[in-house]
Design the sequence.
């Protein structure tokens, strides 16, 4: 393997200028020609559920009323500052409807209802644009808003767009701003930290430049996938930033530190770069491999956020690996010794440094060190049992001060029965309810009797004004269906003897009864609380059971409950199942990678166990901070999953670097001396890399979670930062070296190094008190 990386190193040194030009030109071309990652983001977690989820099946059942999942439906709310809408207001709304209908992709704009107070009206624009497509929804919302802005509306009339799609467009815009801030502050943090670490001007920028290049290049690749159907969540966007900048800088540090070591050992610059690639190329490749394997295991998930997170982030790491093995060495070759100016790189005698001295003490008492570390980690891990999940809904509230927030507020105030994010109870009947509308009274009474709902808007009070089943039957016999009247823009009962209020109520039934009368829905308020709250999620099984019972009693052939609470309940269940399914797969896959790299079946076992212990301890710290001290009702449900995958993958980066160096040194000297030498050499690299990676996650926690109300980002950033720090300063540099010292030659079993000793390099395990020269 070293021969292959040696050849790669020599080739990169030889063709350095060509490699640099190809990377730079290729990145510029991709960024200019492909869609941006930010344009593909979807913030609603429930949109990542599989079609088999009960909430999605209920939404499909309600399609004749709430529209197809392939269409966008956007409420348009008009509110007068006067006591009631005037004839001029209604005429202006008719004209506005005609203008909105001219917007590209808009198929219809229909009147839904006037408010019970008569001071507001609600229209509904239906478009062929997919509601969560890459750029279509934003274009649609912008075009609709432009049409509203151009319309000659009366001075007393305020018109706003509302609903889930408009909210998603607004939150996407804010997500993009947050992503830009996270990227900028992460880069600044890393540069400052690398300036301190290297004490040189060029090394920090050379180390970080490949990661910045890859961030733009991989973001364009992933954006192109999003434009072709891959769903991309907000978490994909922000985690790609911190993963590429953090892991990319780590790989850069692995190489730059080894180049400096080779220069200090007396090699000329070009030979130092080629040698560094041959020595750490395998470590970098294996490190990236563990991350890619862990990420690709996510494709086994059912929940879309997990499933669709794996491929984009794996693409980013693969591109980063390519840049780390080609672009960075080429850049280092061009810079030569100037890379480390003004520090000196003249040859000098080897010194173990601070970490070498620490390792020298550890190998004297490895068992004591290991026991103390396990006890402390175990105590922290015990708090992980107090984890309570929350934050299932994602960021589904429009940012304060936006037009979407104003539209949603107007919809809630004037059309409480038309919530911008309702819970929908749906029933389908074998025969039309128009034949016997009394079934609506029975079903409404049955739903109300469950005691599970605070409000119950449906066909018998479609716009807040009650109507009877007899009234509906009479109106339906005399008039076309409500949907036909709305589509024909017949908003007044001209030419009939029907009272205006009754006529308006009949028009509003288009929202609750399908034209053929076979599908009926009720929009309900949940007694358990806000649809995105944990109590509401806990109430979903009882709600589904009660709805099914009422549906059976009234003879419905199918039923379901759609909306945020049912969707998020399904998110919770499917997420839990995915966690139980994917974790074992990821552990086995990474174990295989470690076994291949280390040529051992023993070392992967304790290396993975160390990561699991670190993971549980980190989760325990998060529970202490957010639940015990912060009095939070729960931590974002994604945290355990993301922490396990990222700490398992990224933690093994440092394991591989340390263990491959120990193996390299153990081929030349006694094992415990090899441990001291390897930890002394890799300690600065691991420490620096860990600080960089933990710092980028800390930036994510501070910048991503501040001022946005997005506590989920703060919790994820904090948990991952804590985990990386524990890995860096305790696991990799204390617990692993102690374990290696205790196991001796068994670390490498069944390879040749594990079967016999050579010059004392791989002796059998030694007991407490042995000196560092003993193996």
Sequence:
């Amino acid at each position: 393997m070293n021969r292959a990386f040696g050849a790669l190193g020599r080739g990169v040194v030889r063709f350095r200028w060509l490699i640099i030009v190809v990377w730079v030109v290729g990145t510029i071309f991709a960024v200019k020609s492909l869609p941006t990652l930010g344009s593909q983001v979807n913030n609603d977690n429930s949109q990542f559920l599989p079609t088999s989820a009960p909430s999605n099946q209920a939404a499909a059942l309600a399609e004749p009323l709430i529209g197809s999942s392939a269409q966008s439906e956007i409420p348009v709310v008009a509110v007068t500052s006067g006591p009631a809408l005037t004839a001029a207001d209604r005429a202006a709304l008719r004209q506005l409807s005609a203008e909105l209908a001219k917007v590209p992709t808009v198929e219809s704009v229909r009147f839904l209802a006037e408010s019970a107070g008569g001071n507001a009206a609600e229209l509904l624009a239906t478009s062929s644009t997919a509601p969560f497509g890459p750029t279509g929804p934003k274009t649609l919302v912008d075009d609709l808003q432009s049409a509203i802005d151009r319309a000659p509306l009366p001075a007393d009339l305020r018109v706003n767009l509302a609903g889930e799609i408009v909210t998603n467009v607004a939150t996407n815009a804010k997500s993009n701003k947050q992503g830009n801030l996270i990227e900028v502050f992460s880069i600044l943090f890393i540069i400052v930290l690398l300036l301190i670490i290297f004490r040189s001007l060029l090394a920090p920028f050379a180390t970080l430049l490949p990661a910045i290049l890859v961030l733009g290049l991989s973001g364009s690749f992933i954006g192109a996938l999003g434009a072709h159907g891959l769903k991309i969540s907000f978490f994909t966007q922000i985690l790609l930033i911190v993963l590429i900048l953090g892991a990319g800088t780590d790989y850069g540090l692995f190489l730059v530190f080894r180049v400096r070591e080779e220069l200090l050992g007396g090699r000329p610059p070009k030979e130092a770069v080629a040698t560094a690639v041959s020595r750490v190329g395998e470590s970098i490749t294996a490190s990236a491999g563990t991350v890619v394997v862990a990420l690709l295991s996510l494709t086994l998930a059912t929940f879309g956020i997990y499933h669709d997170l794996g491929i984009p982030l794996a693409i980013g790491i693969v591109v980063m690996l390519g840049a780390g093995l080609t672009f960075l060495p080429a850049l280092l070759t061009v810079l030569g010794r100037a890379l480390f100016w003004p520090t000196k790189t003249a040859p000098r005698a080897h010194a173990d440094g601070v970490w070498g001295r620490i390792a020298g003490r550890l190998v004297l008492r490895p068992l004591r060190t290991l026991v103390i570390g396990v006890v402390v980690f175990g105590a922290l891990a015990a708090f992980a049992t107090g984890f309570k999940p929350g934050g299932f809904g994602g960021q589904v509230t429009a940012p304060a001060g936006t037009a979407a927030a104003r539209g949603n507020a107007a919809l809630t105030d004037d059309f409480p029965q038309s919530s911008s994010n309702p819970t929908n109870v749906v029933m389908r009947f074998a025969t039309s309810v128009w034949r016997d509308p009394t079934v609506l009274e029975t079903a409404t009474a049955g739903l109300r009797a469950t005691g599970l709902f605070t409000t119950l808007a449906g066909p018998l009070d479609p716009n807040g004004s009650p109507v009877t089943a007899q009234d509906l039957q009479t109106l339906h016999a005399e008039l076309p269906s409500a949907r036909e009247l709305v589509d024909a823009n017949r908003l007044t009962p001209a030419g009939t003897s029907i009272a205006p209020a009754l006529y308006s109520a009949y028009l509003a039934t288009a929202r609750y009864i399908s034209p053929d009368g076979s599908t009926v829905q009720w929009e309900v308020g949940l007694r358990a609380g806000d649809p995105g709250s944990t109590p509401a999620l806990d109430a979903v099984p009882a709600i589904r059971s009660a709805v099914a019972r009422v549906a059976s009693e009234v003879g419905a052939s199918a039923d379901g409950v759609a909306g945020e609470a049912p969707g998020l309940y399904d998110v919770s269940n499917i997420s839990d199942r995915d966690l139980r399914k994917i974790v074992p797969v990821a552990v086995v896959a990474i174990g295989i990678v470690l076994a291949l790299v280390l040529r051992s079946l023993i070392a992967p076992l304790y290396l993975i166990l160390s990561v699991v212990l670190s993971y549980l301890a980190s989760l325990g710290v998060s529970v202490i901070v957010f639940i015990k001290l912060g009095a939070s009702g729960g931590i974002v449900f994604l945290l355990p999953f993301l922490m396990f995958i990222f700490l398992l993958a990224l933690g093994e980066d440092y394991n591989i670097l340390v263990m491959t160096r120990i193996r390299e040194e153990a081929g030349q000297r006694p094992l415990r001396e090899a441990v001291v030498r390897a930890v002394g050499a890799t300690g600065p690299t691991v420490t620096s890399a860990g600080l960089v990676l933990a710092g980028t996650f800390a930036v994510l926690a501070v910048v991503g979670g501040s001022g946005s109300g997005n506590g989920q980002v703060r919790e994820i950033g904090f948990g991952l930062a804590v985990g990386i720090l524990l890995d860096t300063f305790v696991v990799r540099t204390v617990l692993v070296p102690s374990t290696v010292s205790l196991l001796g030659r068994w670390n490498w079993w069944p390879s040749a190094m594990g079967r016999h000793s050579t010059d004392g390099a791989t002796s059998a395990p030694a007991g407490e008190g042995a000196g560092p020269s003993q193996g």
